[in-house]
């Protein structure tokens, strides 16, 4: 895929302004810092591995994945899709990114392990990362290095709490500060306490002698809102106000200053099945309070953060599967922990080989499903797959992956193979159409239409890579909290009867326009 597709994925801009979302793809819970004239961002990736991407930008608008914080977080049944367990929607949540005295810090918690992890490195773009573990899950935590050398985490939902860490930020400090600092922070948004989502997603920052705590809450019968509280001591008396009350529900994030002294905030908004998309909003100051956008609303267009800073854009990409190192590209993530004994880019150079190492019940149960983000307003992906070495009961192909998934692939029954389209729009994945084949190389395509929240995926197959045939019916995509992420392109192979079968994917290619009749 050319840089052109990634450029279209990112914000529309002219010579002096831009509009949101800055990335029309699933980049939830963003946390952004500036180091010199470079910006870094982390984001939630839940059950996908490697986890917590490090994204880099020179202009706050165009971002490139340059590294991940960890390969795997744990090796329990939940992470390895074993014994009927999984960690869908329960992997690493809402990471915090900080830089202090030449060290980069990422703090992230996992609902699956019930722990919080502190990662440290001197080189954010290459690592390695050293990991320290807190044996408790601190919900949506945020790290603060105070001027006096003390170190704190804020966390919680409803009540926002603070707990003190050791000076090297590796453990909880014995006898340190540990208390509620903002009681029922949601009251700022609704004095009647009619709150659907209690205040959470804290981001703490200290500026000009004040401690600012940003949170997100969701009043019933309303939209998600962004809050800010401030106090002149970490455990002082906090006063709060609504910072953003946009009809799109834009919220959750801190603020960041540019080299030229302007201020911005990176928040996110729901974009239905494509996921939660990041939005950049300008911030000004009045009486020591940050003022977001235009009276708490997101303007349609805003001035560019900087006009002379070109930046790379790469968070999705085509792949011909040529690898000197045997590793997949940074745009790819495995669903749960990969089983490294059963996939390869070097057994057959130029191909991704997926070999079945366990018996599965469905796609959600499969190991070594390789995924990357879809993107709006519309996108299309296609792949070539060779199926000579499938075994009875094997199912392999190309999926639109979320809880209610759909796919086009090959199913082997006895000695016979068929192209099948499976639709899980209503929750239970069912074969909609099956077409017998007697050849060993097939081609699959999926079109995604996210325009105006149409949220439909269309499935195609080809026997010659020239003539494409629509198969089955369209998938009505829905953003489900079971997975808590946007739909993904997914290459997969799983066994229902016996292990050892394998398939080879020749390439994966994406476009920013979808296939239409007559193309």
UniProtKB/TrEMBL annotation:
<dbReference type="Pfam" id="PF17851">
    <property type="entry name" value="GH43_C2"/>
</dbReference>
<feature type="domain" description="Beta-xylosidase C-terminal Concanavalin A-like">
    <location>
        <begin position="319"/>
        <end position="511"/>
    </location>
</feature>
<dbReference type="InterPro" id="IPR041542">
    <property type="entry name" value="GH43_C2"/>
</dbReference>
<dbReference type="InterPro" id="IPR013320">
    <property type="entry name" value="ConA-like_dom_sf"/>
</dbReference>
<dbReference type="InterPro" id="IPR051795">
    <property type="entry name" value="Glycosyl_Hydrlase_43"/>
</dbReference>
<comment type="similarity">
    <text>Belongs to the glycosyl hydrolase 43 family.</text>
</comment>
<dbReference type="Pfam" id="PF04616">
    <property type="entry name" value="Glyco_hydro_43"/>
</dbReference>
<protein>
    <submittedName>
        <fullName>Glycoside hydrolase 43 family protein</fullName>
    </submittedName>
</protein>
<dbReference type="InterPro" id="IPR006710">
    <property type="entry name" value="Glyco_hydro_43"/>
</dbReference>
<keyword id="KW-0326">Glycosidase</keyword>
<dbReference type="GO" id="GO:0016787">
    <property type="term" value="F:hydrolase activity"/>
</dbReference>
<keyword id="KW-0378">Hydrolase</keyword>
<dbReference type="InterPro" id="IPR023296">
    <property type="entry name" value="Glyco_hydro_beta-prop_sf"/>
</dbReference>
